[in-house]
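Hi V.,

You were right to ask for the full record rather than a summary. Here it is.
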Amino acid sequence: MKILIIGYGITGKALYDYFKKYQHDVYIYDEKKLKIKNYYSYAKLEKDLPLFDLGIKSPGIRFNNEKFLLIKSLCLKIMSELDFAFSKMEKSYVIGITGSNGKTSLATYLNHFISKKKTTYLAGNIGKPLISLVDQIKKNDVVILELSSFQIQDCENIYLDELFYTSLSPNHLNVYHYLKSYYADKKRALLFIKSNKIYCLNNSKKIIGYPSFSIKKDFTKQIKKYLIGRYSIEYCNIAMNYCLNLGFIDEELLLNLKLLKPVEYRLNYLGQYHNLFFINDGKSSTSSSSKYCFDSFKNKKRILILGGNHKSSSFNVIKVTKNDEILIYGHDKNIINQQLSGKLFSTLEEIFLYLKDIKDKRYILFSPGCDSHDQYSSYLERGKHFNQLVEKYFGDKHE
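Predicted structure:
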């Protein structure tokens, strides 16, 4: 079988590794020039017009992309990575999680607690393509699948046994241009679930139309010892209550709570460095998630660091006081500054040179509210860089 992998990011690389195990005839298309065997540039595709039995599309490739239309004609069949992975995966129990913000947090907490009694796999938009796990997943294992709107749009033949919506707010408007189209893709996930186990958290109830998850026992007080941020605490509480329904007892859950690690670069408290308290919320890619971070420290003197590719988000949702300071960097700093008047910088490191001179007590909230790809390969690289800069400029002041 002659296969074309369409897009060579995290998903494309996982697909390539899978197919090479089975010695298929595999080719790769990506807009970036790659120095690898069997690579097709668009120019070479256009020149040679090679035909393929199967094309598998990464979620970052848009359907209306002019180049994709040619590729589609050259492939007998086009599938999404998730559709293909489900076709190869043993029948398991799949919990789908989608939403504008909070997907990764809820997925991570559910995986942490459920895994103490069942074999679980955390996959999807969280950064682990499902195809990389299908050979390990056995019948009745639990798959916790984080779904982006782009992944949902691509799917035709997946199934979900349960589905959580965390929240819905404007996002990816640089791609969708029309908010209802974005919400429609989120709602499309309902096509893949046959049960009534659908839970709409926060404002998603108004758009999707299903009730929230029922909380039987409130663990908020205990969770606050380990996590910060209203939604992080809420999602952890939901995960613990979900496990009560599986037969966990309180003592088990509280013991496992002590072992819980915060989601990487989601409201991570780095500590006090002399007069400054650093919070790394580098995973934030929407203005609504920046608002959530900012609101979590309402009664503090705050400095909010924003920047990157703004994805047409409105930053007017962030309410600042006279004691707050906004520092903006990156590609779309001037656009963001039109909505939130702040100080402008080219890079994150320039901001740290500015922070060195601050004398009064402040909470430094790094919650970019933007896509990271103007200066970083991913939010992971961005979050890691922030930690490195804290250590570089303030490491000797750690208290």
